[in-house]
Amino acid sequence: MGGHKEQDVARQGFDVADAVPLLLDPHGMVSSWTGGAERLLGYRAAEAVGRKFAELLVPEDAERVPDLVERCRSDGDWAGLMTARHRDGRPVAVMVRITPTLGPRGRSSLLVLLSELAGSSGWDMSRAVLEQMVAGTSIGIAIVDTELRFVWSNAALEQFGGGPAGRRLGLRFADVQPGLDAEAVEERMRHVLDTGEQVVDYEHVGHARSAPLRETVHMLSFTRLDDDRGRPMGVYYTVVDVTERHRARQRLALLDRAGKHIGRTLDVLRTAQELADVTVPELADYVTVDLLEPVLRGAEVQPGPLTDSDRVPLCRAGQRSLYEDLPRAVMETGTVLRYLADSPPVRCLTTGRSWLQERLDPLALAWATPPGGRESTFLELGLRSAMIVPVRARGGTLGVTGFFRRRHDPFTEDDLHLAEDLVSRAAVCVDNARRYTRERDAALVLQRSLLPRRLPEQDAVEVSACYRPADELTGLGGDWYDLIPLSGARVALVVGEVPGHGIDAAAAMGRLRTAVRTLAAIDLPPEEVLAHLDDLASRLARDEGDGESGDFPGRSVGSGCLYVVYDPVTGQCTMAAAGHPAPAVVAPDGTVTFVDLPQGPALGVGGPPFEAVELALAEGSTLALHTDGLLAGGKPSPDGGPSPDGTDRERLRQALRGAATALEPSCRAVVDMLVPARPYDDVALLMARTKRLDPGRIAVWDLPADPAVVAEARRTSTRQLARWGLDDLVFTTELIVSELVTNAIRHAGGPVRLRLIHEQALVCEVFDGGATAPHLRHPRAMDEGGRGLLLVSQLTQRWGTRFVPDGKIIWAEQSLTAPLE
Fold this sequence. Notes:
Blueprint: H1 2-12, E1 20-24, E2 30-32, H2 35-41, H3 45-48, H4 59-62, H5 65-75, E3 78-85, E4 91-102, E5 108-116, H6 127-136, E6 140-145, E7 150-153, H7 165-168, H8 173-176, H9 182-195, E8 199-206, E9 216-226, E10 232-241, H10 243-261, H11 268-279, E11 286-291, H12 293-297, E12 311-321, E13 336-340, H13 344-351, E14 355-357, E15 368-369, H14 378-381, E16 385-393, E17 396-405, H15 413-450, E18 461-468, E19 478-485, E20 491-498, H16 503-521, H17 526-544, E21 560-567, E22 572-578, E23 584-586, E24 592-594, E25 599-600, E26 612-616, E27 622-626, H18 628-631, H19 646-657, H20 663-674, E28 683-690, E29 698-703, H21 709-724, H22 730-747, E30 752-758, E31 761-768, H23 788-795, E32 798-804, E33 807-815
Parallel strand pairs: 22-25
Antiparallel strand pairs: 1-2, 1-5, 3-4, 4-5, 6-7, 6-10, 8-9, 9-10, 11-12, 11-17, 12-13, 13-15, 14-16, 16-17, 18-28, 19-20, 20-21, 21-22, 22-26, 23-24, 23-27, 27-28, 29-30, 30-31, 31-33, 32-33
């Protein structure tokens, strides 16, 4: 029973009848001790009287006693919580009231009342104290009844609008806050009334009466109030303005989203559009990004005046609108707008400082007019507030970004700071894209200058080529293709690929392509051409450090190359590969096969010797030479190897089978079918449809190793030229035949074969079994011989020697279109 009685006392506050009294003298010493004090703290009267009251408390509270004694002497009562120390050492939480009084003999004393708090929820307070608490808080508090009508509210609720507490009585939420979504708020009140579940931290966005032009955010919490029988009486709710916290969270989220979505490409226009997309509608209703024209070209922005006229041209690089009628006229990306020279955007462009106008002049004309469009006022456009932020990076201004609002709440300084943060991030990305555009354009110009502008005319193959550069993320690669006319009406078809991207890869590609053309000029077989290229790549790696650093850009090590030689006289085709996919062959009937070609190692990496294969091609067959980007669909190879899988080859087979008959559209169609417009990797495709020379345009004679046959060889050649209608070349051809046949008989021995070929040029070939090549000499004036080959070199457009398995062939070509005089 005693415990319950003490709890009741704790709930009811200080009841003098139940509290434990004791007296203190003016010095804070215990002068009177009661049985209740002994039961509460365990000290007998003899132990307590004469001790300082502070010694009965824990040290933290003991330090407070002298000040409290002085306060009571001057100010009167003091009440509060303390922790006493029981005689057995355990702490005892007590409610303490100290009151000045007169002790025995009229002496000034202090009456101390102690009430134990064990089992109590805390310090019971009167209505007056509670009213002080709810009146002094900055949190809005209100109570509504079961019909959701106001029955009480504190003064702090008035800061959100809706009038004083007395005016609210009997009204609903929608009556006092028409700008807020009252239905959503009352729905939660009803939920609390029906279920008794508390709703905490409900965020509500709208326009409160206290700030009708500014969107505000409030945090509301709802709790049901019950009577003594547990029946609902109404809802108690609190309101806190969290607008700034909400906006700060929105700004952080917007900056985070901007970091993820702006600058995902190295394209100037895409980056500008990403800036506009990210900021609508979170920050603005309408956003424009206008850049100086040199920025779109990747050029540097030159200092100095922007224009001599009253209009400054800027290119629309990106825009986003929340409304269909903005922009009023259809405006394509890249459209040039001309801004008034004294307009805020141009001032921001020249000064590099931002501009904010909370309220635009509705009758003022918009600062720029699209081509063919009429001038409009801000009132007609419905724009109320604007910010202009310059796009600045690395000390230069690249353009301006315009932010506009139609909504009633104007832009603030905080909005301007946020816009500046967003634009500054985007500006770096725009400048990176601009610089990359310049680098990529330079690399593309270099690469295209190294690729053949047009393939040479010849009678061996009908040819078409298609090259598609990589997209802006990876940069240009080092893919190349070539067609090289060889002696004897033959041609070399070449496709290759250098690892890496950018200008260095393009330069390395040009270096290898030049080496291939040089090796082709000395008529080496395909496997020997690749062997020499392999040596060149290894040597360059040693000279330039490729072998030591895998980070060296544009290196030739690891390059791939496919070298094919086709002879239209015999229809024979010889090829070899170094780390490169084998070509496809489309037969005249449309059947597609892939050459079973041994894969040699990539150039410069070392490995077994290169092997060549030889096959006969029917006239009208099509060779498809390509880089590995075609098989991978323009995507990076998963293992970096040149060997395609069956799926890749099947896709190429289907594309070749379904291509058009005409070679030029067929080549482009195959690339379009297999790779996107902006592939990850460069793609090169060279398609060559084989031809056969008319036997009537080839003449062959076997000659004995007898000097007497030289004259007969001249006469035979003259008769053949007459049949071909090449009488203008008779004289020079007789000299060439005479010299080449004489040299073969004199220096080689064995049978001699003379062959004339009439194609783009007149080709004269002399075969012998010798293994040494003739050398051009410059004889002195008194020498009797040695002028033969010098004479041949002056009468022909080119001449040379090529070795065959059983000897060598010395050949010379005379032009049919521009004969030498």
